[in-house]
Give the backbone structure.
Amino acid sequence: MRSYRSEGGVVELQIPNAGVTKDVPVQIGSIVVIPTVTAAYAANTRFNGLVRGIISGLTKVASQAWTEGANIYWDAALSKVSSHAGDNKWIGIALEAVAGGSTDTLSGEILFNGMLTQADETT
């Protein structure tokens, strides 16, 4: 397999103008990536980011209770994960339930797929 490079869970991308912060998701085109480093923008510089895997502790929309197996979406307007489809894009499945109190703002484990898709494409 001469063309095989990797499983693709972590990819190398150009650092966006706003830079990236380790573990803070950022949308780049049609993907959501979780940077493995903090880096400021510089011309022709790249960073590694997770686009697929099991993750936890992302900032979620407060007051949303999640059930195990629920679809999880990327809310680009808020830069947070959400259990509400609406205009948001599907990025994974909740692997555990999460409380929905107003101070519950961190996600539980998510089977993450940062390749953004429309909600109706997951069924």
In short: The chain has two domains: 10-50, 55-121. Strands lie at 10-14, 26-28, 31-35, 46-50, 52-55, 71-75, 80-82, 89-94, 110-118. Residues 10-50 form one domain. Residues 26 and 123 are 25 Å apart (CA to CA).
